[in-house]
Amino acid sequence: MLKKIFSGVQPTGNLHLGNYLGAIKNFVSLNNDNENKCIFCVVDLHAVTVSQDPKILKNNIRETVATFLASGIDPKKSIIFNQSQVSAHSEAAWILSCIARMGWLNRMTQFKEKAGKDKEKASVGLYSYPVLMAADILLYDTTHVPVGNDQKQHLELCRDIAQKFNNDFKVNDFFKIPEPLIQKEFSRIMSLKDGLKKMSKSELSDLGRINLTDEKDQISNKIKKAKTDSLPIPSKVEELNNRPEARNLLSIYASLTNLSLEKSIQKFSGKNFSEFKEILSQILIEKINPISIEIKKLLNEKKYLDKILLEGCKEADSLASKKIKKIHDIVGF
Ligand code: TYM
Questions:
Q1: Distance 316 CA to ligand 1 centre (A)
Q2: What are the catalytic residues?
């Protein structure tokens, strides 16, 4: 069956190992399967839900494209574009915000986390952000959405919005109800400094994450300093239950080597973390360093990156503008 894949990444700089293992690695294998039609979007409209420096944003948009390409996404097979250049996204987001209910949005945990204690000062955009995400997905009749675990709730909201629109306007099946593609085991990579917190761009200390542009010595230094506990590596997955940092490092190893967590543990069972960390560093460097070199090379080819975006935008626009016309008709504009 032809799968229509859509996913987005914010161009907010510092794309990291969590983005790679939770999402981008999966984009690459979906891109490589000729049965799929993939669209990968640089979601710059989402990025401005918090304040951005315009010059840095422009560069970060290119850097996100460079990261897609360096990781192995082929622009001949997949559409790569930035959201702000296809106006149907903003328009559909408005219409869908009249379908989504306040009560649904009030339940979104990511807003609560990002807005923090001072909710009153958060932008309206940050609050309605998941509605824009629904617009992104629904405009392309997406069947599958590859994301990390943190986006699961937003996808459920997207499904609810699609269903309510179809019911309200009695247009059964107009919006396709998308399926999330979330990897079972490694869909939430945690901070290297705190195994209970997600690895993220916004963590103040850079030591919590491996950036995809990190140099070899930065990678080995961060792994050396990564928090662990004093016990050796166990022999069973269950024994990791109260050891979040140990579980995270072993999960990173497993995901990079395409092994299950169980097999990875068996390999190192009884060994101490200093020995394991050296091997993990080597594997990370083998995987991340070529991507990092390629990102830096591509960043010098601005025209090439802009051309990919321009062509991607044309293709995306031709699909999205057809869908938005139909939405106009249904709504009665
Ligand atoms: P963003 O830019 O925060 O993250 C991009 C992708 O990386 C995944 N991710 C992680 N996966 C595992 N462990 C982590 N620590 C980790 N951190 C990030 C995210 O789950 C995501 O898949 N709202 C989205 C972007 C978006 C989108 C969309 C996604 C906009 N429209 C439509 C899918 C479909 C976001 O802010 O992702």
A1: 20
A2: 114, 198, 201
For residue 213, which phi and psi values (nearest 5 degrees)? -105, 10
Q: What is the pLDDT of residues 67-92, one digit of tens each?
A: 999 999 999 999 999 999 999 999 99
Which H/E stretch holds residue 104? helix 102-106
pTM over 0.90: yes
Q: Is 6 in the pocket of ligand 1 (CB under 6 A)?
A: yes
The string of pLDDT tens digits covering residues 264-310 is 999 999 999 999 999 999 999 999 999 999 999 999 999 999 999 99
**Tokens representing 44?**
């710059």
Instruction: Give yes or no for residue 43 CB within 6 A of ligand 1.
Output: yes
pLDDT digits (tens, 9 = 90+) for 153-189: 999 999 999 999 999 999 999 999 999 999 888 899 9
Q: Determine the distance separating the centroid of ligand 1 and the alpha carbon of 9, expressed in angstroms.
A: 6
CA 316 to chain CA centroid, Å, is 19
d(CA 240, CA 227): 14
321 has a pLDDT exceeding 90: yes
Name the token pair of 8: 């987005």
- Pick the residue whose CA is nearest to atom 20 on ligand 1: 148
Task: For 81-100, give the secondary structure using H, E and C.
Answer: EEHHHCCHHHHHHHHHHCCC
Asked if residue 145 lies in contact with residue 6, where contact means CB atoms within 8 angstroms, the answer is yes
- Evaluate the CA torsion angle 190, 219, 258, 229 in order and state its sign: negative
Q: Is the CB of 324 under 6 A from ligand 1?
A: no
CB distance 178 to ligand 1 below 6 Å = no
Cβ 133 under 6 angstroms from ligand 1: yes
How much distance in Å is there from the Cα of 266 to the middle of ligand 1?
31
In sequence order, what are the beta bridge partners of 40? 7, 80
- Residues 245-261 have a mean pLDDT of 96
Cα 73–257–226 angle (5° rounding)?
100
DSSP letter string, 163-192: HHHHHHTT-TTSS--PEEE--SSSS-PBPS
